[in-house]
Amino acid sequence: MMKRDLLQVYFILGSNNTEQDPLYVLEEALKGGITLFQFREKGHGALAGEDKKQLAIKMKKLCHQYDVPFLVNDDVDLALEIEADGVHVGQEDMSIQEVRKIVPSDWLVGVSSTNVQEAVQAKNDGADYIGVGPIFSTDTKADAKKPIGAKGLQEIRDRVGDLPIVAIGGIQLGHVIELMRAGADGVSIISAISLSPNPESVAATFYMHTNYFSKEQ
Ligand code: 3NM
């Protein structure tokens, strides 16, 4: 099983999630102590083709300088081409079984789940972790589902045993303790870090809060 500490502060970023240089934002977040990174180049103004690939290569390099695993959202071909450390897929993307067939056995493979049924399915399919959400409403994902709250997260935790879980969607610093208590191993964040004027200090504070909770147990 994956080291669940990796999910503590799981930062996700695409070039359209910030007005700043995405490489600057990523490096600040890495300095602040993010534990896992996902490149998610989606939505209005997203890069494609060679531009997307070049940005991914630079981000992977940065992550590795800080010993943080680099995952790619959805685009398994790109992930393979640039030798990422794993992939994250949504419910509409390639299935976990299909992904497992074509990626190295040591890759992290995560899947999004918004309800108990999807979560149990992901566990049975052999996902390393699930991204559970949206917990709260979010402006970052245009087609986000209805928020499930900490209660929805708790229901999923009660049904998947010790499967590693990261909470996602609208998460701010003040939510961390509630979500860790509801059964999350960590929090996944875009805008609370990417839109902050000081991504390093926000990332560091997320780390402190999640770490405090894991030490409390
Ligand atoms: N996936 P922010 S919510 C990428 O529910 C993503 O699966 C979600 O961004 C899901 O931290 C979401 O800015 C957006 O709310 C997360």
From TrEMBL:
Main EC class the enzyme belongs to: transferase
EC number: 2.5.1.3
Record pathway: Cofactor biosynthesis; thiamine diphosphate biosynthesis; thiamine phosphate from 4-amino-2-methyl-5-diphosphomethylpyrimidine and 4-methyl-5-(2-phosphoethyl)-thiazole: step 1/1
Molecular functions (GO terms): magnesium ion binding; thiamine-phosphate diphosphorylase activity
Record text on cofactor binding: Binds 1 Mg(2+) ion per subunit.
Domain of life per record: Bacteria
Residues annotated as binding 2-[(2R,5Z)-2-carboxy-4-methylthiazol-5(2H)-ylidene]ethyl phosphate: T138, D139, T140, G170, I190, S191
Cofactor names: Mg(2+)
GO (cellular component) term, any one: cytoplasm
Binding sites annotated in the UniProt record for Mg(2+): D74, D93
InterPro entries (UniProt xref): Aldolase_TIM (IPR013785), ThiamineP_synth_sf (IPR036206), ThiamineP_synth_TenI (IPR022998), TMP_synthase (IPR034291)
Binding residues annotated for 4-amino-2-methyl-5-(diphosphooxymethyl)pyrimidine, in chain numbering: Q38, F39, R40, E41, K42, N73, S112, K141
GO terms, biological process: thiamine biosynthetic process; thiamine diphosphate biosynthetic process
Reactions the enzyme catalyzes: 4-methyl-5-(2-phosphooxyethyl)-thiazole + 4-amino-2-methyl-5-(diphosphooxymethyl)pyrimidine + H(+) = thiamine phosphate + diphosphate; 2-(2-carboxy-4-methylthiazol-5-yl)ethyl phosphate + 4-amino-2-methyl-5-(diphosphooxymethyl)pyrimidine + 2 H(+) = thiamine phosphate + CO2 + diphosphate; 2-[(2R,5Z)-2-carboxy-4-methylthiazol-5(2H)-ylidene]ethyl phosphate + 4-amino-2-methyl-5-(diphosphooxymethyl)pyrimidine + 2 H(+) = thiamine phosphate + CO2 + diphosphate
Record keywords: Magnesium, Metal-binding, Thiamine biosynthesis, Transferase
Domain Thiamine phosphate synthase/TenI: 9-193
Function: Condenses 4-methyl-5-(beta-hydroxyethyl)thiazole monophosphate (THZ-P) and 2-methyl-4-amino-5-hydroxymethyl pyrimidine pyrophosphate (HMP-PP) to form thiamine monophosphate (TMP).
Family of this protein: Belongs to the thiamine-phosphate synthase family.
Protein name: Thiamine-phosphate synthase
Lineage: Bacteria, Bacillati, Bacillota, Bacilli, Bacillales
